[in-house]
Amino acid sequence: MNGMSYSFALNGTHCLALPSGALFVPSENLLCVSDLHMAKSERVARRRGLMLPPYETRATLDRLAQDIEAAKPTCVVALGDSFDDLAASEALDPEDRARLIALQDGRRWVWIEGNHDAGPNDHGGEGCHSLSAGGLTFRHIADAASEPGEVSGHYHPKYGLPGFAERRRCFVVDGRRLILPAYGTYTGGLDAREPVLRHLFADKALAVLTGARAMPVPLPPAREHSRRA
């Protein structure tokens, strides 16, 4: 991978945080992405009657295809909430479904169950609640009591450089646990300093900002943010 990624160790396993928000584990030749939320525009239209441009799945798959082409993984792990709900999975545009199936060709593809898509889908690959590989455990929602090496998503963390208003999607990591940013095009985010997220990590945690390059930034200790709130 190129020099725009951020290299770190998680539970002794070498990992790369990619600028796109994907994680690459070289020893396992594994690419991991979280919270794709594909077909969100369909779900929003169905539940709220609001019409969003229906191209977010295509944009998400475009970025995923680029990461797959660059990393050439033998395994891809989608870390839950890959679809905005199970009905949205069933309503996936046929062209998008064909592209998704094509991306799986020649590699293992694992769908981790999320809270939005807790059930099987008909888009190839295999489904499971969690996966262990290379000293890491992949699941959708962090378990505060987990052993070291947990990789999860769910919270859609965001953070910004001190003194700047802009917040970027980010990884949050402390050497024991990692939470990935949301990879999907139509996804919001939670400030990485919020107690529900920040208290999962040690004081010396990092936010690794996505963008043109993956940029590590120290997070303030949880108690400091709590005092300011």
Description:
The chain is of the alpha/beta class and 229 residues long. It has a single domain (6-228), classed as Purple Acid Phosphatase, chain A, domain 2, CATH 3.60.21. It contains six helices and 16 strands. Strands 8, 9, 10, 11, 12, 13, 14, 15 and 16 form a nine-stranded mixed sheet that branches. The longest helix is centred in the N-terminal third of the chain and has 16 residues, at 56-71. The radius of gyration is 17 Å and the shape is globular.
Q: What's the β-strand tally?
A: 16
SSE succession? EEEEHHEHHEEEEEEEEEHEEH
CATH topology: Purple Acid Phosphatase, chain A, domain 2
How much of the sequence lies in strands comes to 25-35%
Q: Return the average pLDDT rounded to an integer.
A: 87
Rg, alpha carbons: 17 Å
